[in-house]
């Protein structure tokens, strides 16, 4: 009995040894994914890009800005001169938070019995996790700063009643900080990418596995015709799934659709073509459908890490941020959330759109070149 089991186990190991691609996926895939995820998510939420509107321009107001930056949650990158400029930065997604310090801030703090000055903090609620962290940090830093000013001005805190500094926190684009408004569109984006990748990835691999690939190659069909023929079903199925998921997202889960629906539908088709390139490239290198599906899972996990869904890209290490720009789904999720939650147009997310289009040209160009060489 043991001898038969040993021979069977030996046979399976020999098969695995001959399938280097499968063994590489099984061994290196989980290890690499763990490294990427741990590196990206082990750090706290910090260095959120922030805009500071300091209308007071005094030493006291600058000290508050320094206190906010010292918390390491906020990274003051912009100093707009007006609220309208701050709004434009938030609409464009250039910053995750904005702080407005009013005129007379220092004067009111130095006058006992005067009305407490108000510091306004505006947060981008399209990422609820980052917004909540920023809200808690801002309130804590401003309260701590107020206590320090009391000690410096009067030498004590006891006996002080009422607020020293009023903190007005406002959340835009997702006022109730609903996690569903963030997670459901993101999940929809991932499901769209998975469908496009899987359908395209198994197309050519299935022909090889079933032994019909050689029969196709002896027909008069050209290589580019074969590629287009394999791509059409993937596009149709992926787009139908997207329409179905979009309806469920809006009408069942109540995620708002504030922007242009036709624009979203057109850009979704563009994104499908980008992911389709990856899927066909995978299909060209894999001999079996199992290999194709395993590689799709690896690509999908990499996309999840670098998309900003699990963890904000702005808080990742610089190297990871650069790598994230090479992942199509990162740009697609930003575009989709901008349209659905912010009601934004192309003028707001044009950078992401250009990046997505450029990646599509590069990926599909590489795919066509590689597949034509392998098919001819």
Global geometry: elongated
Q: What is the residue-mean pLDDT, rounded to a whole number? A: 79
Kindly report how far apart the N and C termini lie.
50 Å
- Side by side, the strands of the main sheet go 2-1-3-4-5
Radius of gyration: 27 Å
Label the structural class.
Answer: alpha/beta
How would you characterize this protein structure?
The model has no long low-confidence stretch (mean pLDDT 79). The chain has 376 residues and is an alpha/beta fold. It starts with a helix and ends with a helix. The chain folds into two domains: 48-172, abc type-2 transporter like fold; 179-375, no CATH class. A five-stranded mixed β-sheet has the order 2-1-3-4-5, sandwiched between helices. The protein has helices spanning 2-18, 20-41, 59-70, 83-92, 105-110, 128-154, 179-210, 213-217, 223-251, 261-285, 289-306, 318-324, 328-342, 346-375, and strands at residues 48-54, 74-78, 97-101, 118-124, 166-172. The radius of gyration is 27 Å and the shape is elongated. Helix 7 runs parallel beside helix 10 and helix 9 packs across helix 10. The longest helix has 32 residues, at 179-210. The protein has 14 helices and five strands. 68% of the residues lie in helices and 8% in strands.
Features:
376 residues, alpha/beta, abc type-2 transporter like fold, 2 domains, 5-stranded mixed sheet, 68% helix
């Amino acid at each position: 009995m043991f001898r038969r089991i040993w021979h069977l186990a030996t046979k399976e190991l020999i098969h695995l040894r001959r399938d280097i691609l499968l063994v590489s996926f099984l061994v290196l895939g989980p290890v690499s994914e763990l490294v990427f995820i741990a590196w990206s998510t082990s750090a706290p939420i910090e260095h959120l890009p922030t805009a500071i509107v300091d209308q007071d321009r005094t030493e006291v107001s600058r000290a508050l800005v320094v206190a906010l930056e010292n918390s390491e949650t906020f990274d003051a990158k912009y100093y707009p001169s007006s609220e309208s400029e701050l709004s434009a930065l938030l609409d464009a997604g250039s910053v995750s938070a904005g702080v407005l310090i009013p005129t007379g801030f220092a004067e009111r703090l130095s006058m006992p019995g005067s009305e407490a000055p108000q510091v306004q903090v505006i947060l981008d609620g399209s990422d609820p996790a980052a917004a909540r962290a920023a809200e808690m940090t801002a309130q804590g830093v401003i309260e701590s700063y107020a206590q320090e000013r009391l000690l410096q001005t009067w030498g004590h805190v006891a006996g002080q009643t009422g607020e020293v500094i009023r903190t007005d926190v406002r959340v835009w684009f997702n006022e109730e900080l609903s996690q569903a408004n963030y997670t459901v569109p993101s999940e929809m984006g991932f499901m769209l990418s998975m469908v496009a990748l899987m359908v395209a990835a198994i197309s050519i691999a299935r022909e090889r596995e079933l032994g019909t690939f050689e029969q196709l190659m002896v027909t008069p069909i050209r290589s580019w015709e074969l590629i287009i023929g394999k791509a059409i079903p993937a596009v149709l199925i992926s787009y139908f799934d997207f329409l179905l998921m979009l309806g469920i997202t809006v009408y069942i889960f109540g995620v708002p659709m504030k922007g242009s629906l036709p624009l979203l539908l057109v850009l979704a088709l563009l994104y499908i073509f980008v992911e389709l390139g990856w899927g066909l490239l995978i299909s060209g290198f894999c001999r079996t459908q199992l290999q194709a599906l395993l590689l799709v899972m690896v690509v999908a996990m990499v996309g999840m890490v670098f998309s900003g869904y699990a963890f904000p890209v702005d808080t990742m290490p610089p190297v990871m941020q650069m790598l994230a720009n090479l992942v199509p789904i990162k740009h697609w999720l930003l575009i989709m959330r901008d349209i659905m939650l912010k009601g934004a147009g192309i003028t707001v997310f044009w950078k992401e759109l250009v990046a997505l289009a450029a990646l599509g040209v590069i990926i599909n160009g590489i795919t066509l070149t590689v597949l034509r060489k392998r098919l001819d």
